[in-house]
């Protein structure tokens, strides 16, 4: 691989060889800004190997005593293509066959073979594993919790209101340098997996005590809509959800945490966060945090009682609750 500062490319080496046919190597080397040894190297390679000698050679050593045998690499490819096993499973099976190899080594060879992604094995997806949906059987079967962290809006508006580089934005930046940081607002949300009924509050932090208090208020709010029992609570692995205090206030509900770095396992609340961001947080320019907090309360009513939802064929989430609350007036808009 030719780096960006290389004075010679394959075409430049060919021109070097042509010039050295009738002129001294030292003169041509000085003219092209390279050493005589380098020019002599390419001329000798051309005389010995022809055009192939002008190509870049691999920097790998000729002899590699600790290299993985070719038979092992072939086994890795067969296991991946035929059984579609991940690197960890392939390494486990090889170790069981008395082949010493690490998972990282298997991963590296899968990348070299072009098999590191599942879609590379079956581009049409014919033999891929079937997608398993997370389905809540009835209201209260699954309630998903999550926290969305967003920047606090300074009074008068931030750079979104006046533009970057404006005098107002610079004034806000100067207050930050003096120690008066704007900080963040934490949007705690709970959504019922069956009805998609959602409850959101803007709170000061994401500590365990805050998450516990929010869960109690969310449970009361769901009760008002006919969801009197929560059977399962789904969260990520945030510190507030892993605390012992949080486990003590579940009231008999099963607590399931998603696999680390796998937000799709809590996809309903993640999708709700995206809707919240698109339709409220980034939908307009806010001039203060109080203004946005007030709009959040209004938007919660709109989402639950008036906004059409695809899971209910265009009806709002409140229409699927046991209480069937669907007659809320739109006078709040």
Describe the structure.
The protein has 333 residues and is of the alpha/beta class. The chain folds into three domains: 10-54; 70-119; 143-320, Ribonuclease H-like superfamily/Ribonuclease H (Nucleotidyltransferase, domain 5, 2-Layer Sandwich). It contains 14 helices and five strands. The chain has a five-stranded mixed beta sheet, sandwiched between helices. The longest helix is centred in the middle third of the chain and has 17 residues, at 208-224. The chain starts with 9 loop residues before the first helix and ends in a 28-residue tail after the last helix.
Task: Please outline the helices and strands.
Elements: H1 10-19, H2 25-32, H3 36-49, H4 70-83, H5 87-96, H6 103-113, H7 118-121, E1 143-151, H8 159-162, H9 167-177, E2 184-192, E3 198-203, H10 208-224, E4 232-235, H11 239-242, H12 244-247, E5 254-257, H13 267-281, H14 289-305
Parallel strand pairs: 1-4, 4-5
Antiparallel strand pairs: 1-2, 2-3
